[in-house]
């Protein structure tokens, strides 16, 4: 059994809810306006994983989405390159067979509730990688976290990372279910210690992402970096529907973590509706390409 009490003492979290909200307000008040630029929108677009995680997904809907991705450089040359596409494991083969753009392919596993066997998640990971996935988004077993079963969580993340090897592993915290900012910080640290390359906010199937949770995740990433020198990524997903939403998160990440995180190696946005809003903002006219 790992000494999680000792482990977590290495990372100090001493902010209460009022302090977090006060600091976030100050950051937004001081920096949001300066970040509301076309350049920032283009950077966010370059960090975007176009996402389709619907019960109605099938070969035809995924093929249609991939075709739009393949043609976007030709149709809208003003845009920077997308970073990837995110789909269910069963759709990875379709994506890889049709995709002509050199972008990442993310598969979710244990999605959306993580309420299945670790062996099933390992199988999903291995099969998705075999079909061509380059990144895996796994869901933190929130139920186990809430009863303090950190060994289970740590071991599962380690096993999945060992399965995906060099491929990027993101751990979805489902922050709206973790109840406190301290829990969000703790879950972030455990995920990173266990081998996650990124921590991700939400599946989009429970409560939406909120800016205070993102700030807390940034504090955890910063604390981990200061202790280890390892730079982890952050992925924002779940209820990010407008350019204003995206710019708020961008502003927090830029202020807490710095310019070094403002690239698609360390920052991702997972969304579907956001893409058209970003395109419209960049072109300065309404566009519904996706």
Note the main attributes of this structure:
alpha/beta; 290 residues; TIM Barrel; 52% helix; eight-stranded parallel barrel; single chain
Query: What is the alpha-carbon Rg in Å?
Result: 18 Å
Percent strand equals: 5-15%
CATH topology: TIM Barrel
Give the CA-CA distance, first to last residue.
Answer: 48 Å
CATH top level assignment: Alpha Beta
The major sheet is characterized as: 8 strands, parallel, barrel
What does this structure look like?
- With 290 residues, the chain is α/β, with parallel strands linked by helices.
- It has one domain: Aldolase class I (TIM Barrel), CATH 3.20.20.
- The protein is 52% helix and 13% strand.
- The chain has twelve helices and eight strands.
- Helix 5 links the parallel strand 2 (84-87) and strand 3 (104-109).
- The longest helix is centred in the first third of the chain and has 19 residues, at 17-35.
- The model has no long low-confidence stretch (mean pLDDT 98).
Topology:
Layout: H1 4-9, H2 17-35, H3 38-46, E1 48-52, H4 59-75, E2 84-87, H5 92-98, E3 104-109, H6 118-131, E4 135-139, H7 142-146, H8 150-164, E5 168-172, H9 181-194, E6 198-200, H10 211-228, E7 233-237, H11 243-257, E8 267-271, H12 273-283
Parallel strand pairs: 1-2, 1-8, 2-3, 3-4, 4-5, 5-6, 6-7, 7-8
Structure summary:
The chain is of the alpha/beta class.
